[in-house]
Design brief:
By secondary structure, the protein is mainly β. The chain has one domain: Jelly Rolls (Sandwich). The protein has 1 helix and 11 strands. A hairpin with a 3-residue loop joins β7 and β8. The longest helix has 5 residues. The radius of gyration is 16 Å and the shape is globular.
Length: 158
């Protein structure tokens, strides 16, 4: 799957224009998981910035801001139990995903949406097809930035 990002802006006369039109390359972060960063804001309410947030050092979530990304998972993806200081909108785009919680699990199909509210969770591909998930993470008040290597089991005593 190709990931094209079109970002609007303003020209020197203040008229709307296309600022960037680029293919975003997935970044492999662990076996079976590629991150596709699309956009981020450093604070909320959001500000329009002139630099590309994909040049920033972004983890899973951003304290005081928001992150929008795709996750591409392949069957047998390596587990990563984690929690973030954010409210996340997770949308299954293709394939099937199993969201595991400390108590219970749910299988997601294309079009299904999870509202993740800072709980400890893990994502596992169901079946033998890759799964693409879209994520919008919005920092909660007093949130801390979450990196990619943190495991909330140790962080939360689970």
């Amino acid at each position: 799957m190709a990931f094209r990002r079109v970002v609007t802006g303003f020209n020197k006369d203040g008229k709307s224009c296309i600022k960037w039109d680029t293919q975003i390359e997935p970044k492999t972060l662990r076996p079976g998981f590629d991150n596709v960063p699309m956009w981020a804001t450093k604070k909320l309410p959001a500000e329009t910035v002139e630099d590309d947030p994909n040049t920033w050092e972004l983890g899973t979530s951003l304290a005081g801001g928001s992150v929008f990304r795709f996750g591409v998972y392949t069957p047998g993806n390596v587990a990563r139990w984690h929690a973030t200081d954010s409210v996340d909108y997770a949308i299954c785009i293709s394939g099937q995903m199993r969201m595991e919680l400390e108590e219970g699990a749910v299988v997601l199909n294309p079009g299904d949406v999870v509202i993740q509210r800072g709980t400890n969770h893990n994502w596992v591909v169901q079946g033998n097809q890759p799964c693409v998930m879209a994520y919008v993470l919005i920092a909660t008040e007093g949130a801390k930035t979450t990196g990619w290597t943190e495991n909330s089991n140790a962080q939360h005593g689970h």
